[in-house]
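Protocol step 4 of 5: obtain the predicted structure for the target chain.
Materials: sequence only (see below). No template structures provided, no constraints applied. The aim of this step is simply to have a reference model before the mutagenesis design in step 5. Sequence pasted as it appears in the construct record:
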Amino acid sequence: MADLRALFSSNDPVGSNEAFTNRQNQWNLVAVAIEEHLRHLAGPGFDVEDLEAPRNNVITFHGVGGVGKSTLLRKLEAALAAAEQRPVQWGAPAWADERIVPIRIDLARSASTGSDFERVVLTIRLALAAAVGRPLPSFDLALRRYWETQHPGEPLEEYVRRTGLAGRFGQMLPQQMQAAVAEAVGALQLPGMVGSAAGQITTALVQALRERRARARALAGCARTAALLEAEPDLEALSYYPHLLAWEISQLPERRTVVPVVLLDTFEDTGDRHRDAERLLQRLVWLMPNAFFVIGGRNRLPWADDGLQGQLDYTGPTSWPGLAPEAGQPARAAGQGGARQHLIGDFSPEDCDAYLARRLTQDGQPLIGPDVRAVITARSHGLPLHLDLAVARFLELRRTGRTPAPADFDHTFPALVVRILSDLTGDERHVLRSASLLDAFDIDLATRAAGLTHQAAASRLVGRPMVSEDPYAIWPYHLHGAIRTALRTADDHTEDRWTFADWHQAAERALAALGQQWHDAHAHAPSRALLVACLRQGLRLARDHRLEDLGWLTEAAFAYTSDSVWEPLAPPTHASAGSGQSGMDTPADAVDELLAAIVRRQHEHRERTAERLTTVLDTGLLPGELTELGLYYRAKAHKDLGRTGAALEGYRQVAEAGGRLAPRGRRGLANLARIAGDFPTAFAAVPHLGWEGRHHRVLAHIHWPHGDIDRAAAAFEAARADAEQHNAPGERAIAQTLLALVVAFADPVRADDELALAHQLLEPLDQRATMLYAHVAGLVRGAGTDRDIADRIAALRTEISVAGLPWLTPLVETALAFHHAVRDAPDDLAATLDRLREATEDGDFAYYVDIATAMADLPQPAGSTAQWLDDASTVRERWRGLVMARQEHLRSSRQEPA
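Step 4 output (structure tokens):
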């Protein structure tokens, strides 16, 4: 079909065609459904007069406005009318030889021209007039009587001519109706009655049928003909006349047999509060079981819903098994589904590009270049309406004399918003705009975001095709991408369009609704997944809409960081630190960057983490408690980088603030004392730490450098039990990994099991330093036997350098010293000791040199600063004993029979 707008857009000849793509699956669905319908008609049990049998003579395609439903129905009409009109990718149907009569009726066009159900009936009969080529007596007599009663003085042929119904076949119906009258007069032997009023002839026919005259029954033998002809010829009676039409079609001789396929487009335009128009159309479908109906509209067809009983004549899954949810895939809460109900999907990116390339051409080549097509495709999210609007804009820009560029299409179209909102109620539009602020939502969340007290509008909205569902997600519903973008960014001119203040208030409501959901769940059954999901949406809302009151986000930020899991929250959208400008000017910006820096430290050098956190803190935008969070994690970064002084100052600030992070600050101070070799000070802090300060883990870190493996393992086990009790999987993985590390020194067999569990617990998490601990544990477990140790050590050193975690280097060298001591390799051990002394020359972890020399039974280093809890000789004996025990274990293993 040529695009006249394109043709008249400029002086340059532009080839324009309706590019059609991506709908082969829909054709297959229709072809299979018609094939099943034909088999049903040919079956011995089919009776066109049976009013109780379930109906399966309908298939529906629904989707958002502009997704291509009308285009699909036009193509289906053409493909059913002539094989040469069928797209090449559509295969030939199994019923190619059947006499299919496609009849497409645009209900929107009927409504816009002021016509109604009678126009639908006339269109169907006119199409059959051309296909059958003969009268359908009982229906034609009833229709003539109706017309003379409801349109006195206006001949049907004049109405057909004036309205242009059925084009060149328009005059065939009046002729056939006149022939039906003549046939009735002849059959009833009524000389001189041919020109009489339809009422007189109908009365004579009814009397003949009541008297069971054979010639009358041969003419109009349907069991209900007499009752229909006697009824008052009003609109209600007209809606039952299709029963006569179906009967007449069933009586056609074999050579004239036809199967009408009626395509009802824009079905949503029939709906009203009382479903009056829909009731008439449903009656048409039910009373013509030998016709097949293809219905296109924005919404699913609800005829199988029991809740419509009383509003429509035939309802429920028994009446319409193909429309019932259980007939197809698992249904959404709103009742989506059915083997004969199909959502029209979006185009794939490839199909979008192909559509745009074929839509406008010049000299056989695509007029829209690949760079412009790429931008349009990305912005469309596959919505065909967006593609058509972009094509119109391309023509408009080209008409001004300049070549359209990609930047001209990097936006949404207000017309898209108008199209979307056109058939929604006021409350539904309000909920839709509110829901567009959310990445995903449920009915309760959408209702709260809209500020409504009732869920009815949200419940109706989620049944619309513009809303997709993932039943397994935390919030099952989300808006179509192009529609959501258009609602939020296009400057539409609808009567109820929102102001900036409206959007801001909706964002505040949405943020509060997210917080309420999280608080409600946290009070009863805490969910890490819900916390992260709420944070992701909440942070974006607060940042994008510059919300001042962050409310629950502060509490959620602490909950998020309390467990060391580090799921990604959102990519930063502002300028990065170090670029000269922070890009942060609201508290929401600062909180977003704070959490992003904390999360990204698992994937960035700790130097970068410290820089980002310093930039955030320097803005002064963080709320009080969250300032402490920034100070704490910056202190951790300084500790990891070996900047003991800066770390000490940060931990002290957090501890002295007395807030909820004070136990962590005290833990940091205790760890710094232990790192400096001041074990008594670290040990004295343990009773004041509690669970929040991870007291068991701090205690274990004190015991294992003393070679007291049993007490260290017991403390790590207690730390793991604490984590399990508090439902803290991140802390549990840390405790388990450290347990595997210390056990590996004493019992490599048990270490296998402990390390396997550690890897299992770490697998779903994102803990870079803990994973490096696990690698070190693997080295210790294999000490004395690992032939690949040089490569593994080199890989570890590289990872430590990239991550910016130099504090792990002394531990790696100590593990290597254990390996060389077990192997009794003095030269390798000497080289390792040199590297270890260099790594600890600033005094941090200097006691590792004491441990390494003890392992090899070398003299204690001169000037050792370690302040042990036990006698130094006892510590040395324990470490030397662990080496000797490993050597004995290896000897025993070699002597065991194979």
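Step 4 remarks: Confidence is low (pLDDT under 50) at residues 327-337, 572-581. The radius of gyration is 40 Å.
Proceed to step 5.
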